[in-house]
Amino acid sequence: EAGVAQSPRYKIIEKRQSVAFWCNPISGHATLYWYQQILGQGPKLLIQFQNNGVVDDSQLPKDRFSAERLKGVDSTLKIQPAKLEDSAVYLCASSLGRGTGSGVDTEAFFGQGTRLTVV
Amino acid sequence: SQQGEEDPQALSIQEGENATMNCSYKTSINNLQWYRQNSGRGLVHLILIRSNEREKHSGRLRVTLDTSKKSSSLLITASRAADTASYFCAHRRPGNQFYFGTGTSLTVIP
Question: Residue A96's CB: how many other CB atoms inside 10 A?
């Protein structure tokens, strides 16, 4: 079974520039997550999709971050314009996400992440 | 913050000893999961415990859950150098939102 694919693996940009990250989840997984992980900290949920609908984007800085999930499969996360504090690893994950209640209690599978450095 | 919290932040033990790390969260949950992250790599799922379970075992791992205290603990028995990594708890809320804790950095000294 193919895992979660992310690209690029590394990206260096100047502040105020734009950047986009791409994620292809495991086939058949309805739930897709984007996390931001700053060095030495835990992953912070930016946005969570169920198919192509948003479950939670309460921690997404919407003035500069945007995300979409086309046709409930691939997803892109964009930052425009980038700030120095956006330097982090951006992790994409997916899970089966069927139903509600106990039916959604599946593990999440993570990609290798994109390491963003803003200079 | 929506994140859970873990303690200790860092733990250093000798090979063969047991390692215990704790996790707390703030809301009701459907389940709680533990993940491991080796330096520079993605997160790997270790174990899942449902809200109606109190204890679960998997190999050298033992997880407990106390929903009245909104806390969980992960015990790794007979630790090995290869267990050196960061460990994160993650709680799944009834609305399916999935939040991680702050993590514990474990170093096992050979």
Answer: 17
